[in-house]
Design brief:
The complex is a heterodimer of chains A (about 230) and B (about 260).
Chain A: E1 4-17, E2 23-36, E3 40-44, H1 51-58, E4 66-73, E5 76-79, H2 85-94, E6 96-99, H3 111-120, H4 126-139, H5 156-168, E7 174-178, H6 186-201, E8 205-209, H7 213-219, E9 222-225
Parallel strand pairs in A: 3-8, 3-9, 6-7, 7-8
Antiparallel strand pairs in A: 1-2, 1-4, 4-5
Chain B: E1 12-22, E2 25-34, E3 39-43, H1 50-57, E4 65-71, E5 77-79, H2 85-95, E6 96-99, H3 103-106, H4 113-123, H5 129-142, H6 159-171, E7 177-181, H7 189-206, E8 209-213, H8 217-223, E9 226-231, E10 234-240, H9 241-246, H10 251-259
Parallel strand pairs in B: 3-8, 3-9, 6-7, 7-8
Antiparallel strand pairs in B: 1-2, 1-4, 4-5, 9-10
Helix pairs in contact in B: 4-5, 4-6, 5-6, 6-7
The chains are: A alpha/beta (about 230), B alpha/beta (about 260).
Chain lengths: ~230, ~260
């Protein structure tokens, strides 16, 4: 366990919908997982099973009903389930990258600004951040004429690649990937597989959801079937 | 991997603040800390106590009980209602900025745009006319008002321009904490978008800390790092903005989130 970066222990997530007759929706229960540096764990299970919900719990976007999500640092460990909002912010800035299924960004902001933002908030200077953003956008085949435009009018596949660029630009030590290849063509899928291999080589601990079996086989070190933990 | 560096010295600490006008009218049991560079949103329906709380925080209404402790530029922790009136006024002028919902309440409508900014600068000790005029023109440009209009009266400006002028007036003295009450309330959407973009950019560039009252959850999502949700004078839920809006826990927050078209 010495190289474990992310350890999920006995995680439970329920939704209680007070406005809809207090409907109680259990999602999963007793879910445990350990991911080492340089390893990619892939979640399996049909749609609606709670795979995305699990990633959102890891990102601090959803509240956890019970259990713990520990991140192991040189200086000690932090439990995402109980840490304060300031710490979640710190973790999102420095530690955890998240590629969500759908791009959700501030409107009216240019693609290149969105992609360089994670570096800028880490204090990296603007020229370096732009240079790296440009390199990544070019690798992901986003035409240069789109870089200065807001992605709100981009195609689904282009928006997904902006999201991927934001997730991979900062070399986060923990990466959460929610179907990053779902709306990409073969050429761009191959780029994403390369990016994942590079992140693993740099020691990232990755948790991902991939419906594409070919991509999954290329990146997964460990496959977890969420069906076993459905509440 | 290395642990992130997180700010541990709050700029403002609010302990058990209570200001009640009647039973459950006003605010009570309010506790939170605001860290430098953070934007905190206070959301809730009309009458939930948002503005009462903001008035307490801005030195305009002393709470019945509780402490509001501000960490000054000089590194002092001041309980803002334990210091005398003169010292509190100086603190408000030099370190706080207050943006009102209606520009008319935050501007002096009978003096020029430039004088509106200059007046604030003079209040913190600037006396050089040429310098004041330069700073005023510079601020007008920062909020995208043509510097040639420095001598025009605010009443000759549109509502959106007046709000941008108010923001320039407040920020000209480099406050560290800015309190805003519905800064985009009553403006049409395109004007609102422009003000929101301006606030977002200035907050990031100047590393401002902001507490903002809003009932618009889309505004909250765009600008705020963290939210507190008030109902009937109490804080019913608080946390990261996206967590509150995407996975609200309290029945009232769920109702609030489910009531808007695109939160």
């Amino acid at each position: 366990m010495s190289s474990a970066r992310l350890v999920v222990n006995n995680l439970q997530k329920d939704f209680i919908l007070h406005t809809q007759n207090s409907a109680h929706i259990p999602v999963f229960n007793g879910f445990s997982l350990s991911v080492n540096a340089g390893e990619c764990a892939v979640l399996l299970g049909p749609s609606g099973m709670g795979k995305s919900t699990f990633l959102k719990c890891l990102y601090g976007n959803y509240k956890i009903t019970s259990g713990s999500i520990s991140l192991y640092f040189e200086e000690g460990d932090i439990d995402i389930a109980t840490c304060s909002p300031e710490w979640i912010h710190g973790l999102r800035r420095q530690t955890i990258g998240y590629v969500s299924q759908f791009l959700r960004v501030i409107p009216r902001v240019a693609a290149i600004d969105l992609v360089s933002e994670p570096l800028l908030i880490q204090g990296i200077d603007k020229d370096t951040a732009y240079q790296q953003a440009a390199t990544l956008l070019a690798r992901l085949h986003i035409p240069e004429k789109l870089w200065a435009l807001s992605p709100t009018t981009f195609s689904g596949g282009e928006q997904q690649r902006i999201n991927i660029a934001r997730g991979f630009i900062a070399d986060y030590p923990v990466l959460l990937l929610d179907e990053p290849t779902a709306s990409l063509d073969a050429k761009n899928r191959a780029v994403v597989v390369e990016l994942i291999h590079e992140a693993k080589a740099k020691g990232a601990a990755i948790v991902g959801i991939f419906h594409d079996e070919d991509v999954r086989d290329k990146v997964a070190d460990n496959v977890i079937d969420l069906l076993e933990f459905v509440a | 991997m290395k642990m992130p560096v997180v700010e541990t010295q709050p700029l403002l600490t609010v302990n058990n603040v209570q200001k009640l006008y009647a039973i459950n009218r006003g605010c009570q049991d309010v506790n939170f800390s605001l860290y430098p560079g953070e934007v905190l949103g206070i959301v809730g329906e009309s009458g939930s106590g948002k503005s009462t709380l903001l008035n307490c925080l801005s030195g305009q209404a002393a709470p019945n009980s509780g402490d509001i402790i501000y960490h000054t530029r000089a590194g002092e922790d001041l309980n803002i209602y334990d210091i005398n009136e003169a010292k509190r006024r100086l603190l408000m002028r030099s370190e706080f900025g207050i943006v009102k919902q209606h520009p008319r309440d935050g501007l002096r409508m009978r003096v020029s745009a430039g004088a509106n900014i200059g007046e604030r600068l003079m209040a913190v000790g600037d006396r050089h006319y040429g310098h004041i005029r330069d700073v005023a023109s510079n601020w007008l440009e920062q909020v995208e008002i043509d510097a040639e209009r420095v001598d025009h009266l605010p009443s000759e400006f549109s509502g959106g321009m007046q709000q941008r002028l108010q923001i320039a007036r407040v920020l000209a003295t480099h406050p560290r904490l800015v309190l805003m009450d519905e800064p985009t309330g009553g403006l049409d959407v395109s004007v609102q978008a422009k003000i929101l973009d301006l606030i977002r950019t200035l907050v990031a560039d100047l590393n401002l800390s902001v507490i903002m009252v809003t009932h618009d959850l889309a505004v909250a999502r765009l600008l705020c790092h963290r939210l507190i949700v008030m109902q009937k004078s109490r804080v019913v839920e608080s946390g990261l903005t996206d967590q509150i809006l995407d996975d609200p826990q309290h029945a009232y927050t769920q109702l609030l989130v489910s009531s808007v078209l695109t939160p």
